[in-house]
RNA sequence: CCCGGGGUGGAGCAGUGGUAGCUCGCCAGGCUCAUAACCUGGAGGUCGCAGGUUCAAAUCCUGCCCCCGGAACCA
């Protein structure tokens, strides 16, 4: 991959018109696993998230509520952050594009591009709704049946002066760049899409709006504000100091990976590199366009796009409060392939939770702890300095750990988790069944002790491998025993290095009548 | 019309040339340490359709059908 020292990753910034839904959260979780994994791997990580606030819609929404736009944005940002916190998203920074650092960086950037001659004045013609006092896309109008979706009146054609960014000039350079950097656009399917798009020719893009109060003023012509993408994309650099702290900016740029939804791939893969070149900066190292989450209609069985009009919006907190942030993370990481699309249904959620988290992982943890605590008073003698035995020979744990690493690096989180379950946890349950330590303890207590030591080793491996995915439960499992490595310092290598116990293995988990509290209580 | 993705046992997926695999669900046993959890076995698929290449195709080629998404303020 990239140089091991620093790793800068971002997610798309969200519109604060409405609260985040499970699809928005899907992206953050996928990025979070990557961030946590990189930290474990010894990288100095900077993980950025944020909200995209300089839009007409935001100003309008605030006006509807009779609130000051900035105050409204701050309140929404607070709500977003609450959700991300509940999901244990480990972002290092959260940028709001209404912040001064973003405004300053944006103005510096656009001025530079202007001075370099990549911006020219022209006129924009589009479909305009007088009720909204805004231009509408053809798609919006078409979907509403030829009228404005908000005001139900047909739009009028309107032309206004504006500034264009000369994107078309960068077509050849982009194609050359894709060719020289085959890993730039991920996954592969997205790459093909962008390739054909750019080969088909690029149009210059309108980057300003006239007569808006809310937003960033164009420094070389203050009657205009910067329009959407030319503002939003810049958050990735203004957040790390572009235009305000050059040293910091140089430290982190270029980004190692931008996580975005597949729908905005074109902006990140075509427009964004061109903008950066125009300002004399490097493009990001890679862009990952993840899939979408659809909601299963329980009546028809059909997968529906999440939308307010369909009334099928599921908010993360709906799930988190009923289950947990960990369960939420597990479901989407295991059930929805990150590069492709996935589906959510409450029934499926329950099934996955019960079979994989409660019955498999949680139950293995419970049975191991009980066996050790009840039969050995929580203390396995003579395990200090002793290597655990191998319980599964088809695939050794080193291979498994490396397969998991490979999958994480390719953002194939569902496959990484499947490996852990099939190659670490299932074999442990089978091994317990085969060796029957609950019986063996009555005839050969020493042999049973070794069996239990081997079983607990599987929990140790699973906890380490699961650290980026289920940070809390992985820690709970790990701290249930006196494993030698401090939790904060464990790395994937520790899975196969088997650092020896300095002292005999002991159960540290709090017990009641010799039993632990279930990690994932079954849902009925 | 164009572009992209996809069609594999009831559901969800893996599988890019060599006896069709996994999870859930279902059926039957076993076990009883554990969260009525765990383990074993079983039923269930002509891998969208039709041709072709090959000793051999879910996998490569051609044509067709169907589903989903996209075309520039939408994660």
Q: Could you list some keywords that capture this structure?
A:
alpha/beta, 4-stranded antiparallel β-sheet, 20 helices, elongated, RNA-binding
Structure overview:
This protein has 524 residues and is an alpha/beta fold. It has helices at residues 22-40, 56-64, 69-86, 100-115, 138-143, 171-180, 188-199, 229-232, 235-238, 246-252, 265-278, 316-322, 325-335, 346-376, 397-409, 413-435, 437-443, 445-466, 471-478, 493-497, and strands spanning 6-11, 44-51, 93-96, 119-129, 134-136, 156-165, 185-186, 205-206, 208-210, 224-226, 257-261, 287-290, 293-296, 303-305, 342-344, 379-380, 505-506. A 6-stranded parallel β-sheet has the order 3-2-1-11-12-7, with helices on both faces. A hairpin with a 6-residue loop joins strand 13 and strand 14 (303-305). Helix 16 packs antiparallel against helix 18. The protein starts with 5 loop residues before the first strand and ends in an 18-residue tail after the last strand.
